[in-house]
Design a protein that fits this description.
The structure holds two protein chains of two kinds. By secondary structure, chain A is mainly α. Chain A has helices at about 25-50, 50-55, 55-80, 90-110, 115-135, 140-155, 170, 180-195, 200-210, 210-215, 220-245, 255-265, 280-300, 305-320; strands at about 160-165, 250. In chain A, strands 1-2 form a two-stranded antiparallel sheet. By secondary structure, chain B is an alpha/beta fold. Helix content of chain B is about 30%, strand content about 25%. Classes of the chains: A mainly alpha, B alpha/beta.
Chain lengths: ~325, ~260
């Protein structure tokens, strides 16, 4: 830049009116770190209540293993929520993809596992095209897909689980600690994409202000399509891992998983209005939920109570962290 | 309304940077712009005036690639161009400071300055670009230092900035890219009085650097202080085109209100 004439143009501009109020509001910090605090609190609490059962290496491995599928699906969901949308179809996508892959494994063996993210992409692309080009809310599109994919799963499997060949690559994927390693690799890759690539930055920009992003010439539609395709891919892979773990593609698999995944993302500090959040937060949010479930089992609390608590934790996290000043109307 | 200066006798003999002819834009049944001609010269501040709904914003959005016009031609430095997207406008050297600034609130200053034009490593293009964060931040630091603009933090979200600071960031974004034409849409609307003066001064400074400036405003005093030439729109058509020094406040007001140009002395 060699514009001598405008050098020091800003000198004397009034910059004293900086009000730090917006950025450093307590609820903002709470939102960003509540998951980390909650994880520590839960570990201390259950560690005190049942040190011999809870604070063991074996138990921590169980927690990690149990949260693996949830982490995978929630990583994809993070991108969706970051653009300010929602994907309610992930649970049904898991079942459909798991069942299809289990069927495919009869023909092609263990390699069918690698089909799972691709099959998931197909479901995600259908969501994306209807959402972006049909111009209807993602909530409605994916609510429809939730039903469509579940129904297709029941039709294809005739209502019964489809077993995966017991020995081989596919079922081996479910053996600990392989799912955990998959999560680590995916989280690193996804975090890199979000923080370091133009795609990641546009994801945040769209969540921040979609109209302005368009005005500035960002490829908004393309980013949205890719985000929903990614959510499908992660849900498909999650369905594949779960199918490997339980040894069959079941038509009821993944029921309610959309709630689990969304909870993990939101507890992890990602703003439901989009634009702010992180992959690491989602992983920690996911660990909070599986630690809670694990601790309650160890304390002998019934699983029915856990379902109640999952809902309470989700709403509690949002109550503490939502930035009410930035949302004018609650609907 | 008749254009008071026919297109056949341009204001200046040198070629304009941007030449707009017969521009039309419709939204459904509403005629937002009809057969508008506009010449924008380097080193000149052109005031674009008109009442609300006169078509000012539609006209500049058609030039900056936000809207695509239904009819008309645009020549940039003598070549016919189709400004089909904001990216095309930018590549022609047309930078716009939009009325609402078009800053993304949850991103920091560097991200906003480079949004859509991120520096990347290696051969990757488009969405796959791996961003050179350090290089972009250094660049923004230099730009802000040169302009002597102070912001609370380079990494702070622009949402936390004051109105003046946001305006400064939006202006820095336009200047950073070696623009040949800078469009300032109601640039002083949200500013304090000293800040308004700064922005008025900027328009003149840019023009003295040989940059074309289009200045859109409601404020007649601003217009008289800063522009060389005025184009006045009325109900989507060009109502008048005058040299600022040949006109006066009363005449400008009546032209904005749709009265034909009164003969001056």
């Amino acid at each position: 830049m060699a514009l001598e004439g405008i050098k020091a143009w800003g000198r004397g501009l009034d910059t004293s009116r900086f009000t730090p109020g917006v950025r450093f509001k307590a609820s903002d910090l709470v939102g960003r770190y509540i998951a980390y605090a909650a994880l520590v609190v839960l570990i201390v609490f259950f560690g005190t209540m049942a040190p011999n059962l809870f604070l063991t290496r074996n138990n921590f491995e169980v927690i990690l293993q149990n949260s693996a599928v949830q982490c995978v699906v929630a990583i994809g969901m993070t991108f969706v929520i970051l653009i300010g949308s929602i994907d309610l179809s992930v649970g049904s996508t898991m079942a459909l993809v798991g069942t299809l892959a289990a069927l495919a494994s009869r023909q092609m063996g263990g390699a069918a596992f690698f089909l799972t993210p691709l099959l998931g992409v197909v479901v995600g692309l259908v969501n994306a095209v209807v959402f972006v080009y049909g111009r209807i809310p993602s909530f409605v599109v994916t609510l429809g897909m939730l039903s469509v994919a579940r129904g297709l799963t029941l039709i294809i499997g005739k209502g019964y689980p489809v077993p995966v060949p017991f020995h081989g690559l596919f079922s081996d994927v479910g053996i600990p600690p392989i799912p955990f390693f998959i999560v680590v690799v995916l989280a690193l890759v996804a975090s890199f994409i979000l923080k370091k690539t133009a795609f990641g930055r546009y994801t945040l920009a769209i969540g921040g202000d979609e109209d302005k992003s368009r005005m500035l010439g960002l490829p908004v539609n393309r980013v949205k399509v890719i985000v929903f395709a990614m959510s499908g891919a992660f849900a498909g892979l999650g369905g594949g891992i779960l199918t490997a773990e339980i040894g069959s593609g079941s038509p009821t698999m993944g029921t309610g998983f959309e709630l689990t995944a969304i909870s993990a993302v939101v507890i992890g500090g990602t703003s439901l209005t989009g634009g702010r959040g992180s992959i690491l937060g989602t992983i920690v949010g996911s660990l909070v939920m599986s630690t809670l479930a694990n601790g309650l089992i160890i304390l002998g609390v019934s699983t029915d109570v856990q379902i109640v608590l999952t809902g309470v934790v989700l709403v509690g996290a949002v109550l503490l962290s939502i930035q009410r000043g930035k949302i004018r109307i609650m609907k | 309304m008749e254009a008071t200066i026919p297109n056949s006798s341009p204001i200046r003999s040198d070629p304009p940077f941007l030449q707009v002819r017969g521009l039309c834009k419709q939204f459904g049944g509403i005629r937002a712009l009809h057969d508008v001609d506009l010449d924008i010269y380097p080193g000149e501040v052109l005031g674009l005036l008109g009442d609300n709904g006169a078509g000012k914003s539609t006209l500049i959005k058609s030039i900056s690639g936000v809207y695509s016009p239904n009819a008309g031609t645009i020549h940039c430095e003598g070549k016919a161009v189709t400004i089909s997207s904001p990216g095309v406008a930018r590549s022609l050297g047309i930078e716009t400071v939009f009325q609402d600034l078009a800053l993304i609130p949850n991103l920091d200053a560097a991200a906003n300055l480079f949004l859509g034009r991120e520096l990347g490593w290696g051969p990757f293009k488009g969405l796959l670009r791996v961003m050179r964060a350090r290089a972009m931040e250094e660049d923004v630091k230099k730009t802000l230092e040169l302009l002597d603009i102070h912001i609370p933090s380079l990494r702070g979200e622009v949402e936390s900035f004051s109105g003046g600071q946001r305006q400064a960031i939006a202006i820095a974004r336009a200047i950073r890219w070696k623009a040949k034409l800078v469009i300032l849409d109601e640039p002083t609307a949200a500013l304090s009085v000293p800040e308004q003066r700064k922005v008025l001064g900027l328009a003149r400074q840019l023009a003295s650097e040989g940059i074309g400036v289009v200045y859109i405003t409601h404020n007649i005093l601003d217009v008289i202080a800063v522009t060389d030439r005025l184009v006045i729109l009325h109900r989507g058509q060009k109502a008048a085109e005058v040299r600022t020094k040949d006109s006066n406040e009363h005449e400008i007001v009546s032209l904005i209100m749709g009265k034909s140009k009164t003969p001056t002395s």
